[in-house]
Design brief:
Helices cover 68% and strands 0% of the residues. It is an all-alpha fold and 335 residues long. It has three domains: 66 residues, no CATH class; 98 residues, Alpha Horseshoe (Serine Threonine Protein Phosphatase 5, Tetratricopeptide repeat); 133 residues, Serine Threonine Protein Phosphatase 5, Tetratricopeptide repeat, CATH 1.25.40. Helix 5 runs parallel beside helix 7 and helix 13 packs parallel to helix 15.
Amino acid sequence: MSTVSISKEEAVISFLKNCSCMKDLKQIHARVIQLGFEQSRFVVGKVIVFCAAAEHGDMSYAVSVFEKIGDPDAFIFNTMIRGFGKANDPRKAFDYYKIMQERGLESDSFTFSFLLKVCGQLGLVLSGRIMHCSTLKHGLDSHVFVRNTLVHMYGMFKDIEASRQLFEEIPNPELVAWNIMIDCHVSCGKFNEALDMFSRMLRFGIEPDEATFVVILSACSTLGALDFGRWVHSCISNNGLCQCSAMPFVWRTLLAACRLHGNVELGEQVRKQLLELEPDHSSDYVLLANTYASAGRWNEAMRVRKTMQKRGVQKPEPGNSVVGRHPSLRSDEPL
């Protein structure tokens, strides 16, 4: 391939990376065809990736692009499977898996992770078990992506024992695996077990992230604000988590719980913690003021709002509160 062709291909890839909608993608794809890259699996694969993974992707367009590729590789097939899984169309996802097999292409960890995720999300128990057997046949059941997806899939099937057994077979589970296992317990209504799993994770020296606390806070949601606060405070104090990057999120969520339950005393303690971490975060002022207001302590509520104005802190716009933004529990590679 000439230097000119390489530079043109790089330019096209650059455009694809900055693509934000299907309208733009179709224009770039037209340019791809015009430049003679329609059979370049690397370039066309990027087009299909956008259709499959983007929030406003279009799998019907992905199919039209796929059908013009003379010799699609495993990556392109995996992307098609992933896209139809995301579109909640398991039949087509498995159709492409079947075609992939018929063409003699080797299924890999991504293939099975995407298919297992489809089975879990849509409650396809029999298909999920069959795919589990296939991972064993291919020797991929111990691959980190596959194993994590298997744990999660059985959790979505409400088969917590299968999830737990698979998790316990992981030699040194990383944070993502712990998060998944904790989430499985929560989704199965086993809240105490979720908290026990979290405590065990901390004993193993695994530092939690925001995703961990999302599921833990969910597990604690039925507790009263005081018990909830004591539990969080105990975990933080006993496990040296004060410098954890997720702590502002944790304290802020607890402050929101204090407002909900009208627990002013705990709310004041939580606010002190937040002042040390992020002293001018607007949501904290609003939450504490509303906590006072819900308890009928209007003078304190006005004092907080005046302090907010004095420090020049702007009230958050509607819909922009940090509280309630839940990070993904899992990386999208491939979960």
